[in-house]
Amino acid sequence: MLLSDYAKSAPHSPGVYKFLSAEGAVLYVGKAKDLRSRLSSYFSGAATDRARQMLSQAKSIEVIVTDNEAEALILENSLIKEHFPKYNIQLKDNEKYTYILVTDEAFPRMLLVRRSRGGRIKMRGSVYGPFVSGSAYVLVSSTLRKLFKIRTCKVGQGKPCLQYHLGFCMGPCAGLVTPEEYGKQVEKLKEVLSGGKKLEQLLEELQSEMLSASKMRQFERAIELRNAIKSLSSLLEKQKMESRSEADEDYVSFAESGGNVLVQIFRQVGGVIKDRKRFSIPSAVSGSPLSEFLARFYEAERIPRKIYVEQPFEDMALVESFLSGKRGGPVSIAVPEKGDKKKLLELLRKNIMLEISKDSNPALIELQNALSLPRLPKTIECFDVSNLQSSNIVGAMSQFVNGFPKKSSYRRFKIRSIEQQNDFAAIWEIVFRRYSRLKAEGSSLPDLVVVDGGPGQLNAAISAISELGLSIPCVSLAKKEEEIYLPGKRVPIKLPKSSEALHVLQFARDEAHRFGVSYHRLLRRKKTSLKL
Hints:
The structure is a single chain. By secondary structure, the protein is α+β, with helices and mostly antiparallel strands. The protein has 16 helices and 18 strands. The strands form four sheets. Strands 12, 13, 14, 15, 16, 17 and 18 form a seven-stranded mixed sheet that branches. The protein has a five-stranded mixed sheet with strand order 9-8-7-10-11. It has a three-stranded antiparallel sheet with strand order 2-1-3.
């Protein structure tokens, strides 16, 4: 495959890319907000002499998708430190990222620190970050010190320092506060640095204070608070590429495709994701493919203390015992239920689906696997019924092609067969009308039909399709719990909220609903104007 072909097949997603030599050596590591656009720029004729020299030695390109550009920047830095690529001379500096450290002291301080070349932070305490948005971390640090009155001077100097007199410190330097009282403020600071609801509450308070300052014409204070809000919002996002844990951990995800199992592993060393490993193995004859794979993989690899997988697998306890014996210490294989560890596994799965899908939307590959569809659902049509107090009952259909709306193919229906509210009958009618027309025209049918609702709506749609003698995969999506009902199955499927496959179904459902409501409003306006 030509290098330019690798670029054309890359996704329009943020991530990291690696140019590899014929021997597999990493020549260059880069990050991009849009991988396809960035890689294509290398072949546009505007490449520098150094880039052309690198391209002359490169034989392939590998990409790793991330969820945002900040994660890509952190992963890029980790990979450069790991591989020291020949053409990355300007990024080998290890002093690029800054962290906030809350020290383990009787009266803790909040310090700005950097990791050592070995990826460690020398002082003991709780670490937050990294911060990757230029010098804004200084503003965050100074803002938080003032808000929580965290000390900057030495304890025991006998008299209050200037920060105390300015109202920015509680005075531990002069013994004006007990360790317990000071500790409460430190705990509040840690909660804010950890993100979540406490951070949201703080941002709301700062927003309110900023508006008050503006109304009182205290514009300098309002600008200071605005900058603080902006910095806290952008810099305190958790980044999955680096962990506050110093542990060595592995993250393993896999998916079956075409008789093979694709496995990808993120290896975390010293709290930093160092690299991704990829494997393609034959499907297991029996049991889970992970059982045999993990035992063989760790024959020649460092065995970490913890291994995270997406779901429990057969013989998991046996593999734990085997690896513990080889390591000479306990090894835990766990399934994270939430947090950054779960997000890392989801990111791995996204990359696997991208590899399987090639030029197709990875979300559709996930959807095909989740619903056991016979083919990739490149064309999805979704139906919804809209009515208000049994008047002007209408139906609507959205069409999605390769995971995106094709609005020119949306359709709307005025219900003819019923006058009273009956969602089942209405769904039957609009589905029957849609596909009886396509059948008569000899037009192509969709790969998947989705109806808004539960088992009742699903059965109505299947009945209409069956009466036409057609065979189209059909499911329903229930709004309240976002459960997916399949024909002949009592228990619905519930995909994770972060699932891209679920997002496609939700988007299609919401578009059908929006289109139906707009048609319903149009008919009501016409009816009202006629009365006038």
